[in-house]
Design goal:
A hairpin with a 2-residue loop joins strand 4 and strand 5. The longest helix has 18 residues. Helix 1 packs across helix 6. The chain has six helices and seven strands. With 211 residues, it is an alpha/beta fold. A seven-stranded mixed β-sheet has the order 2-1-3-4-5-6-7. It starts with a strand and ends with a helix.
């Protein structure tokens, strides 16, 4: 099975490749040719699935006859009714959040600080959350398969660990007694929500291929 991925993010490609190897299927996985020269579509759908499907359809029209996959993912916090959700990467910017110090913060740090501020006073027993990824596959602009993947956890009151990225320092895994930023790279890959979504997508694609 030959698949083109609408991303040049090496971390995502690594997660997908790892999941494909674990499934045991013969898969060729490559970034979509000429991706950098293709204007990016708007990501204005209210759900991960909506954005993933729209991107897969759009990018597949630039590779006639090929299967193209696209993803959308982020953090869902139950106490915040699923936010930041599709706005995970731009959460602090969306609400013009500013810190009280002049210290420069990265985008990830600002997002984490904003999340902490919104959960002030929320007990640890009510801080359930998940990383959620949706992958969609399309050919010639038509959707052919969708896969979901998630990792359950809790949001801490302060960051722990220096690994990972995004909300990983706040995302606590009760089963491992560590945050996503405190576990080793191999374990983090084994828990990847993107990897799980890709595994689910491959199962759907196998069914489509067999029809």
């Amino acid at each position: 099975m030959n698949l083109f991925v609408a991303t040049s993010n090496p971390g995502k490609l690594r997660d997908f490749a790892t999941a494909g190897a674990l499934v045991g299927r013969s898969i060729t996985l490559e970034p979509l040719p000429g991706l950098a020269s293709i204007p990016a579509p708007p990501e204005d759908e209210p759900t991960f699935e909506g954005n993933a499907v729209a991107k897969a359809r759009y990018y597949s029209s630039h590779a006639p006859g090929e299967i193209v996959i696209a993803d959308d993912s982020g953090l869902e916090v139950d106490a915040l009714h699923g936010r930041p959700g599709v706005r995970s990467a731009r959460f602090a910017d969306d609400f013009n959040f500013h810190t009280e110090t002049d210290k420069p913060f990265t985008t990830d740090e600002r997002n984490n600080l904003y999340l902490i501020s919104l959960l002030t006073g929320v007990p640890l027993t009510e801080r359930s959350a998940r990383y959620h990824c949706v992958l969609a596959a399309a050919r010639n602009g038509h959707l052919i398969a969708v896969g979901h993947g998630a990792v359950e956890g809790e949001i801490l009151t302060e960051p722990r660990g220096t690994g990972g990225f995004g909300y990983d320092p706040l995302f606590y895994l009760p089963t491992h007694h560590r945050t996503m930023a405190e576990i080793d790279l191999e374990t983090r890959h084994s828990l990847s929500h993107r990897g799980r979504a890709f595994t689910a997508l491959l199962k759907e694609l196998a069914f489509v291929q067999d029809e």
